[in-house]
Protein 1
Amino acid sequence: MIICVRPNIGLPFKENIRIFKKLNYKHTRFDLKVIPDDDKRLKIDVFKDYYEFVKNAGMDFDEFHSFAAIDIDSFKRKAALELEMMKLCGAKVISQHLTDELMKYPDAINAVIKKYKDAGISFCIENLLRDMCFASMEEADAVLKKIPDADIAFDLGHAMLTGIDLCEFYDKYKDKIKVIHLHDVIDTDHLIPFTGKLRNSPFISRLKEFKGVVVLEIRCHTIEEAEKKFKEARRNIKKFL
């Protein structure tokens, strides 16, 4: 597996990367939301700046992440920009949030997925929380029937919060799961892996066998907190995986 780390959106992107480099992580994620609202440069130019910084830190972008757009036209524009960025850096998997509103336009989504597939990129739909698209196995079946070429980003924290059985979901969709979002849950999610429900989960054996990208999604509010938590996460990864 490839262990990839998620920069916290509320913290400066480059400070995230400095911490990851210090802790010897080699792979990270890009999300357009890491670009501050007050940065008036073209987003592609900001990305090139960030990508150069990541390369100089000895790291790569191995996953892209995309929150749901407000409408289908915005979705198509955003997807086109992200595809351009992914071609520049060579990332091969994107995790996409969808909504019930966007799923009213399966033909448009399928057209976008084809462009990604033609570029050798896995376009993965992420399982989300209750009252959102793709929040159960039944909804996953319904979505994949409409967009059959989509792959899956399996978010373990979301799954545990919505009552999805991790082993059952994985066993059913393992051929489509190209990326796993790894974080733990007690009363809330995005906790350090193996500090909550995952610690004694039978899913650990499946996780050990997974060959794709595993993204550590740990909520942090300060750079100091990020360093502490991602350091502990490294120890837990070595212990449990």
Protein 2
Amino acid sequence: MKKLGVLFLIIFLWGWVGTGLTALVTISDLFFDLGTNYDTTDLDTQTSRFGLFDLDDYHYLTFNNVTDLNALTAGVTFSEEGHAIVQELQDLNQAAIADDENMVHQAAKDTNETPAGSWELTLTWSGLTGSIYQSTIGPFGTITKYVEYDPGAHFYLLLDTSPDANENSTASDPTDDTGFGPDTDTVQILEAELQSGYGCISYYPTSPNFTTSKWSLFSLKVISVIDNTTAPYLDSDSYDLSELVGKELLFSAMTSSSPGGQIIWGTDANGQLILKGQGEGTFRLQAAPEPATLLLVGSSLFLVGLVARKRMVKA
């Protein structure tokens, strides 16, 4: 499906409590050890060092007991499901690393190109709920709905050595997306739980499918990080990732559309209003100075990244 004006940005901010850090620390020397040599470029089982994950994402919102846009008022509740597949491992300059051990590239897979890839990374979340708490109208008639997410949803970063993720979803039925959840050949790299979250959805009432954008900011607590004694695992040369358990992170995401883009309104089988989005973006692992500054730092980085990452993918 051709993408026009699609923007999706994910930033992971790792909260470092009580360590006295005075500056934001970006983990730029991450690597995966697959335990198996999947490529022919060398004889090892590790990827090159990287700092960015480039993503192809998907999310799906259902507004409870609402059938049209005019009924989106304060107090309306919704549920949200979502996932993403990592397209590419990159350095901090957004250049692809030299050796990714033949990781799946979803764009190539979607167009039946080869090689298909030997392993894949997916990010998935479920059980996410929230409600609209405020509506505003901008100077040019743009309507913005501000939302608050309920705590408790879980987010997972998964590594699959038998690639099977498949983005086949449509606006009317998201259930034909497959292979994004845990299965027998999936290794859970990281799990985090939502502590709080806020976001907004903006659109022109006369042409919502052409002008919609969605932004979210989540505060998550790390529940677990895979032990790095048995491959496959994620690790860093300079940072002990296991120490992140119990720490806070921020996850920011934005998807926007222009005419023909990949974020659209519709209805489900029960006639309830839905909003489905699909886009691109990145995330990185970072250590923040202190919990009190997490929101400020995250918001600032989001705005900087928003300008830097905006891309138009033309038909």
Protein 3
Amino acid sequence: MTLPALKKSYPMKRDDKILLVPVVKGILLIPVEAIIRIEASSNYSKVFCKDQSLPIVVAKVLRCFEDKLPQHLFAGVHRTHLVNKMYMVSIKNNNILLESGMQISISRRKMKKCFADF
């Protein structure tokens, strides 16, 4: 089945629990709860998942993921980062600490919204 045919048969909605991610070898089905964060890198995005040591590189911009992922679970804390709120440990000194130990800076523009959400 081709990607356009698959997209028509399974339209992505904000409340879906599985994210369809096109990769070189086909399409990956990733549970939304397994996504820790998504990092933008030009016209590509790196999807960091719970049980994987290396990120999944996808030829999609971050805005595409923002539109597909549920807003109550994911926060855009920077123009280059979407973070799953379930994996956040603390916010300190304008940085978010994740369970993995990764620190992500919060942009000044998104600071108020970020603090209001948490």
